[in-house]
Design goal:
3 domains; binds iron/sulfur cluster; four-stranded parallel β-sheet; Rossmann fold; alpha/beta
Length: about 375
Amino acid sequence: MLVTFPHMGNCWPAFKSLCENMGAGVYLPNENNTQQLKVGLKHSPEWVCFPFKVTLSNFVECLENDVNKIVMATDCGPCRFGFYYAVQERILKDLGYKFDMYHLPQGDLLTFEWADFLRSICEDKSYATTLNIYRTARVYLMKSQLIQIAEKLEGKTRCYEKNKGDTTRCLKRCVRMIDDAKTYSQLRKTRWKIKDEFRKIDQQKHNGKALKVGLTGEIQVTLDPFVNHDIKRKLGEMGCEVHMDLSLYDWMKHKFHINFHRKYVEYLSKIHKKIGGIQMDIGGEAYWVLGEYINWAHKGFDGFVHIYPFTCMPEITAKSIITKWYGDERFDLPPAFFGFDEHAGEAGLVTRLEAYTDLLKAKKEKRNGTR
Ligand code: SF4
């Protein structure tokens, strides 16, 4: 009996450990790719959000490889994500696949419904003890945190690398190390190894010329390089130090109500109510995207890149508000917006990014009096 989950960027070692430590056999889904996506597109409603199509194509690939248990997260939030698992289950069963769909409730992790979910995927009930559930959750959270550390270092290192590709290779090695570390003590050592790996990268300093750019948006699009056409790498190679607070770990902390950074950006959005600051979670990351925009504007960032699935209602709302704020000169942080779906093209994205970073460089030079 094999269990699987959707592929989302570098998060797979955490999801894998969650299932393995509960005694389940794991089928690791393929990295998302164009060929596989065609299947998801074929069987999804045309109007549905892009992440739905990407995850559906993951599931078809897994079911074709003898998987019989699928784990899909769900939420009670105000947009379509809460219905993904139910609609996907219906589509896949109509296609004739035989499997069990397990939904992982993540609306509020302090309800501990996730512990029941972990018990339910155990085939060998000796794994279903409270102690093992605690250990599994701890390893999962630690792996998520290490992935976040590696991805933050990646964003801040790439624009300084002397040999193109060193940072990308280093990140891959780190993700592999996170997967290989199985116990809490091994994971603690891995934390230092990750920092060491990035320190070893041959770097040149830009003397303050690197652009400080914040990257945020809808979580699946932001975390999966196939879905976002590797925008983080592209920005780094164009000379941007990319700052990104969004990660699986950030999301988990939020759902455990201990994410103080999110609380702070919520506050920033709320206190700008008079000019359109969102007052509550309206789905996606819109609420926090607005707060993050204000936060990075206050910190003097050079640019702000917001990415989202093409038809994502909450993110489009956030985009409209930020566009107005910048147009009205409320904040001096030039935003760029990129919507992704199956029609998004590579060349157009690169051209827009080049134009955007050129404008940011010119603005920075003017501000520093070097132009
Ligand atoms: S956040 Fe956007 S992409 Fe995700 S389910 Fe909601 S509307 Fe769809």
